[in-house]
Design goal:
The chain has 350 residues and is of the alpha+beta class. It contains 11 helices and 14 strands. The strands form 4 sheets. Strands 8-3-5-4-12 form a 5-stranded antiparallel beta sheet, sandwiched between helices. A hairpin with a 6-residue loop joins β10 and β11. α2 packs across α9, α4 runs antiparallel to α8 and α6 packs across α7. 28% of the residues are buried. One of its GO terms (biological process) is DNA transposition. GO terms for molecular function: DNA binding; transposase activity. This is IS91 family transposase.
Length: 350
Amino acid sequence: MNTFISLLTTYYDEFIRHYGDRLTPDIRRAISAMRRCRTEQAGCAQWYCPHCHHDDRLPLGCGHRACPQCQQRTTSDWLARQEAKLLPAEYFMLTFTVPAPLRGLARAQPKAFYAVMFRVAASVLKDFARRQHSGISGFTLVLHTHNRRRDIHPHLHVVMSAGFYHPQRRQWHKGRKGFLFHHTALAKVWRARLLDAIARHPTLGLPAAPLPTEWVVDCRAVGRGLPALQYLSRYLYRGVLPDKDIIRLNDRQVTFRYTDSQTRQPATRTLPVVQFLWLILQHVLPKGLQRVRDYGLLHGSARTLRLTIQQMLLSLPTWQLSVKTEPLKATRDCPCCRHAMHCVGITRPR
Protein backbone atom coordinates (compact mmCIF):
# COMPACT_ATOMS: atom_id res chain seq x y z
CA MET A 1 0.00 0.00 0.00
CA ASN A 2 1.13 3.54 -0.68
CA THR A 3 2.74 5.20 2.36
CA PHE A 4 0.45 8.24 2.31
CA ILE A 5 -2.71 6.11 2.05
CA SER A 6 -1.44 3.86 4.85
CA LEU A 7 -0.93 6.91 7.09
CA LEU A 8 -4.35 8.28 6.12
CA THR A 9 -6.00 5.00 7.08
CA THR A 10 -4.11 4.65 10.38
CA TYR A 11 -4.54 8.24 11.58
CA TYR A 12 -7.93 8.93 9.99
CA ASP A 13 -9.87 9.53 13.23
CA GLU A 14 -7.21 11.83 14.66
CA PHE A 15 -6.99 13.73 11.37
CA ILE A 16 -10.77 14.29 11.30
CA ARG A 17 -10.69 15.61 14.86
CA HIS A 18 -8.06 18.20 13.95
CA TYR A 19 -9.06 19.19 10.41
CA GLY A 20 -12.63 17.96 9.93
CA ASP A 21 -14.08 21.46 9.92
CA ARG A 22 -11.69 22.54 7.14
CA LEU A 23 -12.43 19.68 4.72
CA THR A 24 -14.29 20.53 1.54
CA PRO A 25 -16.65 18.03 -0.12
CA ASP A 26 -13.96 17.42 -2.78
CA ILE A 27 -11.36 16.52 -0.15
CA ARG A 28 -13.84 14.25 1.64
CA ARG A 29 -14.59 12.41 -1.60
CA ALA A 30 -10.86 12.00 -2.26
CA ILE A 31 -10.28 10.62 1.25
CA SER A 32 -13.15 8.16 0.87
CA ALA A 33 -11.85 6.96 -2.50
CA MET A 34 -8.24 6.55 -1.33
CA ARG A 35 -9.20 4.67 1.84
CA ARG A 36 -11.04 2.01 -0.14
CA CYS A 37 -8.53 1.93 -3.04
CA ARG A 38 -7.36 -1.64 -3.73
CA THR A 39 -9.42 -3.08 -0.90
CA GLU A 40 -12.46 -5.35 -0.95
CA GLN A 41 -14.67 -2.29 -0.59
CA ALA A 42 -13.65 -1.17 -4.11
CA GLY A 43 -14.45 -4.55 -5.67
CA CYS A 44 -12.33 -7.22 -7.33
CA ALA A 45 -11.23 -8.15 -10.83
CA GLN A 46 -11.36 -11.81 -11.87
CA TRP A 47 -8.27 -12.96 -13.81
CA TYR A 48 -7.96 -16.24 -15.71
CA CYS A 49 -4.99 -17.98 -17.35
CA PRO A 50 -6.01 -20.02 -20.44
CA HIS A 51 -2.71 -21.90 -20.35
CA CYS A 52 -2.71 -23.44 -16.83
CA HIS A 53 -6.34 -22.54 -15.92
CA HIS A 54 -5.24 -20.59 -12.86
CA ASP A 55 -7.64 -17.87 -11.72
CA ASP A 56 -7.07 -15.02 -9.32
CA ARG A 57 -8.96 -12.13 -7.74
CA LEU A 58 -7.32 -8.74 -7.33
CA PRO A 59 -8.79 -5.65 -5.63
CA LEU A 60 -9.62 -2.69 -7.86
CA GLY A 61 -8.18 0.80 -7.66
CA CYS A 62 -10.38 3.79 -6.87
CA GLY A 63 -9.44 5.72 -10.03
CA HIS A 64 -9.54 9.09 -8.23
CA ARG A 65 -7.16 11.64 -9.77
CA ALA A 66 -5.76 12.55 -6.34
CA CYS A 67 -4.89 8.93 -5.54
CA PRO A 68 -1.14 8.23 -5.86
CA GLN A 69 -1.81 4.54 -6.57
CA CYS A 70 -4.00 4.98 -9.64
CA GLN A 71 -2.33 7.51 -11.95
CA GLN A 72 0.82 5.83 -13.33
CA ARG A 73 -0.86 4.84 -16.60
CA THR A 74 -2.44 8.29 -16.92
CA THR A 75 1.00 9.93 -16.93
CA SER A 76 2.35 7.84 -19.80
CA ASP A 77 -0.85 8.23 -21.82
CA TRP A 78 -0.83 12.03 -21.46
CA LEU A 79 2.83 12.27 -22.41
CA ALA A 80 2.27 10.12 -25.51
CA ARG A 81 -0.66 12.30 -26.64
CA GLN A 82 1.26 15.53 -26.12
CA GLU A 83 4.36 14.18 -27.85
CA ALA A 84 2.25 13.32 -30.90
CA LYS A 85 1.20 16.99 -31.11
CA LEU A 86 4.75 18.39 -31.14
CA LEU A 87 5.79 20.42 -34.17
CA PRO A 88 9.39 20.63 -35.45
CA ALA A 89 9.93 24.07 -33.92
CA GLU A 90 11.67 25.69 -30.97
CA TYR A 91 9.61 25.59 -27.77
CA PHE A 92 9.52 27.76 -24.68
CA MET A 93 8.33 27.11 -21.14
CA LEU A 94 6.66 30.00 -19.32
CA THR A 95 5.60 30.08 -15.68
CA PHE A 96 2.89 32.42 -14.34
CA THR A 97 3.00 32.78 -10.54
CA VAL A 98 0.87 34.68 -8.01
CA PRO A 99 2.14 36.45 -4.86
CA ALA A 100 1.55 35.15 -1.34
CA PRO A 101 -1.41 37.45 -0.46
CA LEU A 102 -3.50 35.87 -3.24
CA ARG A 103 -2.86 32.27 -2.23
CA GLY A 104 -5.60 32.44 0.35
CA LEU A 105 -8.10 32.60 -2.52
CA ALA A 106 -6.78 29.23 -3.74
CA ARG A 107 -7.67 27.73 -0.34
CA ALA A 108 -11.03 29.46 0.06
CA GLN A 109 -12.42 29.24 -3.50
CA PRO A 110 -10.10 27.05 -5.57
CA LYS A 111 -12.46 26.38 -8.47
CA ALA A 112 -13.25 30.04 -9.13
CA PHE A 113 -9.69 31.24 -8.57
CA TYR A 114 -8.04 28.62 -10.79
CA ALA A 115 -10.59 29.23 -13.55
CA VAL A 116 -9.71 32.94 -13.47
CA MET A 117 -5.99 32.09 -13.63
CA PHE A 118 -6.50 29.94 -16.72
CA ARG A 119 -8.66 32.50 -18.48
CA VAL A 120 -6.32 35.44 -17.84
CA ALA A 121 -3.12 33.58 -18.72
CA ALA A 122 -4.62 32.34 -22.00
CA SER A 123 -5.80 35.84 -22.93
CA VAL A 124 -2.35 37.33 -22.20
CA LEU A 125 -0.57 34.77 -24.37
CA LYS A 126 -3.05 35.12 -27.23
CA ASP A 127 -2.74 38.92 -27.23
CA PHE A 128 1.07 38.85 -27.12
CA ALA A 129 1.12 36.36 -29.98
CA ARG A 130 -1.36 38.48 -31.97
CA ARG A 131 0.82 41.59 -31.60
CA GLN A 132 3.92 39.70 -32.71
CA HIS A 133 2.40 37.95 -35.72
CA SER A 134 -0.91 37.41 -37.47
CA GLY A 135 -0.72 33.62 -37.52
CA ILE A 136 -1.98 30.76 -35.37
CA SER A 137 0.20 29.36 -32.60
CA GLY A 138 -0.43 26.74 -29.94
CA PHE A 139 0.27 26.28 -26.26
CA THR A 140 -0.59 24.04 -23.32
CA LEU A 141 -1.42 25.33 -19.82
CA VAL A 142 -0.75 23.09 -16.81
CA LEU A 143 -1.84 23.98 -13.27
CA HIS A 144 0.44 23.20 -10.32
CA THR A 145 -0.80 24.03 -6.83
CA HIS A 146 2.31 23.53 -4.67
CA ASN A 147 5.96 24.48 -4.38
CA ARG A 148 8.84 22.15 -3.53
CA ARG A 149 7.99 22.27 0.18
CA ARG A 150 4.40 21.24 -0.75
CA ASP A 151 2.88 24.48 0.56
CA ILE A 152 0.06 26.13 -1.37
CA HIS A 153 1.70 27.95 -4.27
CA PRO A 154 -0.55 27.99 -7.36
CA HIS A 155 1.17 28.63 -10.67
CA LEU A 156 0.69 27.86 -14.33
CA HIS A 157 3.28 26.23 -16.57
CA VAL A 158 3.01 26.91 -20.30
CA VAL A 159 4.64 24.97 -23.13
CA MET A 160 4.45 27.12 -26.27
CA SER A 161 6.02 26.85 -29.73
CA ALA A 162 7.89 29.83 -31.16
CA GLY A 163 6.58 29.10 -34.65
CA PHE A 164 3.16 29.96 -36.05
CA TYR A 165 1.02 29.09 -39.04
CA HIS A 166 -0.11 31.79 -41.48
CA PRO A 167 -3.57 30.65 -42.73
CA GLN A 168 -3.76 33.00 -45.75
CA ARG A 169 -0.33 32.10 -47.07
CA ARG A 170 -0.53 28.52 -45.84
CA GLN A 171 3.01 28.79 -44.54
CA TRP A 172 4.74 27.83 -41.32
CA HIS A 173 7.04 30.47 -39.78
CA LYS A 174 9.72 29.39 -37.33
CA GLY A 175 9.57 32.56 -35.27
CA ARG A 176 12.47 34.42 -33.68
CA LYS A 177 15.24 32.14 -32.51
CA GLY A 178 15.95 32.28 -28.79
CA PHE A 179 13.18 34.77 -28.01
CA LEU A 180 9.45 34.47 -27.49
CA PHE A 181 8.09 37.32 -25.33
CA HIS A 182 9.69 39.79 -22.95
CA HIS A 183 9.15 38.41 -19.43
CA THR A 184 8.88 41.83 -17.78
CA ALA A 185 6.09 42.93 -20.13
CA LEU A 186 4.32 39.60 -19.60
CA ALA A 187 4.49 40.04 -15.83
CA LYS A 188 3.03 43.56 -15.93
CA VAL A 189 0.08 42.56 -18.11
CA TRP A 190 -0.46 39.34 -16.12
CA ARG A 191 -0.62 41.33 -12.87
CA ALA A 192 -2.99 44.00 -14.18
CA ARG A 193 -5.41 41.59 -15.83
CA LEU A 194 -5.51 39.06 -13.00
CA LEU A 195 -6.20 41.69 -10.35
CA ASP A 196 -8.91 43.22 -12.54
CA ALA A 197 -10.53 39.81 -13.13
CA ILE A 198 -10.50 39.03 -9.40
CA ALA A 199 -12.02 42.41 -8.54
CA ARG A 200 -14.78 41.91 -11.12
CA HIS A 201 -15.57 38.32 -10.11
CA PRO A 202 -18.90 37.94 -8.25
CA THR A 203 -17.49 35.72 -5.47
CA LEU A 204 -13.79 36.52 -5.38
CA GLY A 205 -12.30 39.69 -3.95
CA LEU A 206 -8.92 41.31 -3.54
CA PRO A 207 -7.26 40.71 -0.15
CA ALA A 208 -6.70 43.49 2.35
CA ALA A 209 -2.97 42.75 2.51
CA PRO A 210 -0.80 44.91 0.23
CA LEU A 211 0.22 43.30 -3.06
CA PRO A 212 3.72 43.53 -4.53
CA THR A 213 4.11 45.81 -7.53
CA GLU A 214 6.46 43.45 -9.36
CA TRP A 215 5.36 39.93 -10.23
CA VAL A 216 7.34 37.08 -11.75
CA VAL A 217 6.74 35.43 -15.12
CA ASP A 218 9.57 33.17 -16.22
CA CYS A 219 10.23 32.46 -19.90
CA ARG A 220 12.99 30.16 -21.13
CA ALA A 221 13.78 28.06 -24.19
CA VAL A 222 13.36 24.28 -23.83
CA GLY A 223 14.56 22.98 -27.19
CA ARG A 224 12.06 20.96 -29.16
CA GLY A 225 9.54 20.79 -26.34
CA LEU A 226 9.83 17.16 -25.28
CA PRO A 227 12.01 17.81 -22.18
CA ALA A 228 9.43 20.30 -20.88
CA LEU A 229 6.59 17.81 -21.40
CA GLN A 230 8.56 15.08 -19.64
CA TYR A 231 9.21 17.43 -16.73
CA LEU A 232 5.51 18.34 -16.42
CA SER A 233 4.39 14.71 -16.71
CA ARG A 234 6.47 13.77 -13.66
CA TYR A 235 4.46 16.17 -11.49
CA LEU A 236 1.10 15.97 -13.20
CA TYR A 237 -0.47 12.65 -12.21
CA ARG A 238 1.93 11.01 -9.76
CA GLY A 239 0.45 12.71 -6.69
CA VAL A 240 1.73 15.59 -4.62
CA LEU A 241 4.52 13.58 -2.94
CA PRO A 242 5.87 10.26 -4.28
CA ASP A 243 6.67 7.44 -1.87
CA LYS A 244 10.39 7.58 -2.58
CA ASP A 245 10.60 11.11 -1.11
CA ILE A 246 9.23 10.01 2.29
CA ILE A 247 12.45 9.04 4.04
CA ARG A 248 11.48 8.59 7.69
CA LEU A 249 8.45 7.72 9.86
CA ASN A 250 8.98 7.77 13.63
CA ASP A 251 7.47 9.21 16.80
CA ARG A 252 4.31 10.21 14.89
CA GLN A 253 6.48 12.39 12.66
CA VAL A 254 6.93 12.28 8.88
CA THR A 255 10.13 13.45 7.20
CA PHE A 256 10.28 13.99 3.46
CA ARG A 257 12.94 15.38 1.18
CA TYR A 258 12.77 18.04 -1.48
CA THR A 259 15.08 20.32 -3.45
CA ASP A 260 15.40 23.82 -2.06
CA SER A 261 14.30 26.33 -4.71
CA GLN A 262 16.87 28.92 -3.62
CA THR A 263 20.03 26.87 -3.11
CA ARG A 264 19.12 23.95 -5.43
CA GLN A 265 20.41 21.66 -2.69
CA PRO A 266 18.64 18.66 -1.08
CA ALA A 267 16.63 19.55 2.02
CA THR A 268 14.21 17.83 4.39
CA ARG A 269 11.02 18.80 6.19
CA THR A 270 9.56 17.09 9.27
CA LEU A 271 5.91 17.42 10.33
CA PRO A 272 3.48 15.66 12.68
CA VAL A 273 1.51 13.00 10.83
CA VAL A 274 -1.86 14.79 10.88
CA GLN A 275 -0.27 18.05 9.75
CA PHE A 276 1.50 16.17 6.98
CA LEU A 277 -1.79 14.64 5.83
CA TRP A 278 -3.40 18.08 5.66
CA LEU A 279 -0.37 19.46 3.78
CA ILE A 280 -0.99 16.91 1.01
CA LEU A 281 -4.79 16.84 1.01
CA GLN A 282 -5.19 20.61 0.66
CA HIS A 283 -4.00 20.19 -2.94
CA VAL A 284 -7.01 18.08 -3.97
CA LEU A 285 -8.55 19.84 -6.96
CA PRO A 286 -12.26 20.65 -7.17
CA LYS A 287 -14.42 18.22 -9.09
CA GLY A 288 -14.73 19.14 -12.76
CA LEU A 289 -11.67 21.40 -12.84
CA GLN A 290 -9.49 20.55 -15.83
CA ARG A 291 -5.87 21.08 -14.83
CA VAL A 292 -4.39 20.69 -18.35
CA ARG A 293 -5.78 22.76 -21.23
CA ASP A 294 -4.69 23.04 -24.86
CA TYR A 295 -5.15 26.15 -26.99
CA GLY A 296 -4.72 27.13 -30.62
CA LEU A 297 -3.06 24.51 -32.80
CA LEU A 298 -2.94 22.05 -29.89
CA HIS A 299 -6.68 22.17 -29.22
CA GLY A 300 -8.73 19.16 -30.27
CA SER A 301 -10.73 21.23 -32.76
CA ALA A 302 -7.49 22.07 -34.66
CA ARG A 303 -6.45 18.46 -35.14
CA THR A 304 -6.87 18.45 -38.93
CA LEU A 305 -4.89 21.67 -39.34
CA ARG A 306 -2.16 20.40 -37.01
CA LEU A 307 -1.80 17.17 -38.99
CA THR A 308 -1.55 19.20 -42.19
CA ILE A 309 1.28 21.27 -40.71
CA GLN A 310 3.07 18.18 -39.47
CA GLN A 311 2.76 16.60 -42.90
CA MET A 312 4.13 19.75 -44.53
CA LEU A 313 7.10 20.06 -42.17
CA LEU A 314 7.98 16.42 -41.64
CA SER A 315 7.24 15.22 -45.20
CA LEU A 316 5.23 12.29 -43.86
CA PRO A 317 1.94 10.95 -45.24
CA THR A 318 -1.11 12.05 -43.32
CA TRP A 319 -2.19 8.50 -42.54
CA GLN A 320 1.07 7.91 -40.71
CA LEU A 321 0.53 10.97 -38.50
CA SER A 322 -3.12 10.29 -37.71
CA VAL A 323 -3.03 6.51 -37.28
CA LYS A 324 -5.13 5.37 -34.32
CA THR A 325 -3.85 2.70 -31.99
CA GLU A 326 -6.08 -0.13 -30.85
CA PRO A 327 -7.14 -0.02 -27.21
CA LEU A 328 -4.93 -2.18 -25.00
CA LYS A 329 -6.43 -5.27 -23.42
CA ALA A 330 -5.95 -5.78 -19.70
CA THR A 331 -3.33 -8.52 -19.20
CA ARG A 332 -0.90 -9.62 -16.49
CA ASP A 333 1.59 -12.44 -16.07
CA CYS A 334 0.32 -15.64 -14.51
CA PRO A 335 2.13 -16.36 -11.20
CA CYS A 336 2.18 -20.08 -12.04
CA CYS A 337 3.24 -20.37 -15.69
CA ARG A 338 4.16 -16.76 -16.60
CA HIS A 339 1.75 -16.77 -19.55
CA ALA A 340 -0.67 -13.88 -20.10
CA MET A 341 -3.76 -13.80 -17.91
CA HIS A 342 -6.93 -12.01 -19.01
CA CYS A 343 -9.50 -10.10 -17.01
CA VAL A 344 -12.78 -11.96 -17.37
CA GLY A 345 -15.01 -9.98 -15.05
CA ILE A 346 -15.37 -7.45 -12.25
CA THR A 347 -17.20 -7.96 -8.96
CA ARG A 348 -18.30 -4.97 -6.93
CA PRO A 349 -19.72 -5.03 -3.40
CA ARG A 350 -23.33 -4.09 -2.83
